[in-house]
Amino acid sequence: MADKPVRVRWVTVDRIIFGRPLRSVAFDVAVAGLVALFAVAGAVAQPGGWKATLVGVGMALVLLFRRTHPSAVAVVVAVLALVQVIAGWGPLGYDIAVLIALYSVVKYADRLRDGVLAGAVAAGGVVLAALQVRGPAAWWASAIYFGLITGAVWLMGLNVRTRRLYVLSLEERAATLEREREAEARAAVAEERTRIARELHDVVAHSMAVMIVQADGVRFTIDRDPATARAAAKVVADTGRQALEEMRRLVGVLREPSRPEPVAAPDVVAGPDGGLSAEPAHRRPALVELPALLDRFRAAGLRVGYATTGVAAPLPPGLELTVYRVVQESLTNALKHAGVGASVELSLDWSADAVVVRAVDDGRGRPVVRPAPSGGHGLVGMRERVGVYDGSLTAGPALAGGWRVEARLPLPSAPGTEQGEAA
Fold this sequence. Notes:
Among the domains are: about 15-130, no CATH class; about 285-365 and about 375-410, Heat Shock Protein 90 (2-Layer Sandwich). The chain is of the alpha+beta class. It is elongated and about 130 Å long. Helix 1 runs antiparallel to helix 2 and helix 5 packs antiparallel against helix 6 (about 140-220). It is built from 11 helices and 7 strands. The protein has helices spanning about 20-40, 50-60, 70-85, 95-110, 110-130, 140-220, 225-255, 290-300, 315-340, 380-390, 420, and strands at about 15, 20, 305-310, 345-350, 355-360, 390-395, 405-410. The longest helix has about 80 residues, at about 140-220. About 60% of the residues lie in helices and about 10% in strands. The strands form 2 sheets. Strands 3-4-5-7-6 form a 5-stranded mixed beta sheet, with helices on one face. It catalyses: ATP + protein L-histidine = ADP + protein N-phospho-L-histidine. One of its GO terms (molecular function) is phosphorelay sensor kinase activity.
């Protein structure tokens, strides 16, 4: 038997030690080790001998906590440096720990005030260190030298702190925008589901009215014309089954919506304007009105080509409304994004088990000032409507340019065609 292919999934794991990233811990250990090395290396030759070395090792140990407790580390290092000054040992190699602590408190402290205070203390330390320098140069020359180094370290820490806070603010802003985007997407989905529910409610109400009329007809004709009564009873049964199916879909729409998938931007379109007028709130369009809809979009500036393949089958009212809305939204998006003058090829492909709505534009129009009114919220609305009838929707750039929308809607196995005749 052939070996089955093995799918490998790479997973990135951030290694944490002591509650901190391993890389940061390793770097701090290396810095502390360098300071300790300076302290131990001068144990014999430096002033103070092993006592000075212990001071340097103490500075190295506290530097391990410079990220989590920068202010406390700066205080401890300053106290140890003061001990060194009081002992008269003068500047030593491990005094680099003072600069590292100064940099850390400016970069990591919660308040910049701590960094300013640390800078002032460091300025005083510069003067004291310069007074202990032994050599032919004047003390003020050493003070200027130490001051320039200390000032450069302080400014470097301030620059890094500013950049770090700026990056954090950008990340927080991006997270806020992402939450707002998800909230808007959820609101758009909820609004569209409410609209679909209202339209399905109208479909069910119409079916109920048909059933009542046909049931009354059965009651009055069952004795005089049994054949007509049987036909009316069949209409009642077919309409009832169809109404029950629409009611099931209505209940599914009214359930708590799942988390919407991210969309680039919901196509929220304002009310009627220009030469195109939206349908009244409680009117249910039908596919026989597609030519009039296409004429309105042609008048608005789209060059719409329309073709059908296969034999059109009678559709339940709710499914027919969904096909109409998908066509309307596809043309609206083409007018909005492809622009006036763009060419759109619209087709309805009928088969025994499904109807496929396909709209492809060339994207070569000019921007439209007043877009056509939408029947919902663009891709969000189409996705919700198609999902109600277990269909599928694909939308994206076409290979030759422009945009392509394709919706496939399954047809019911036994659509009730008598309802329209009896109504």
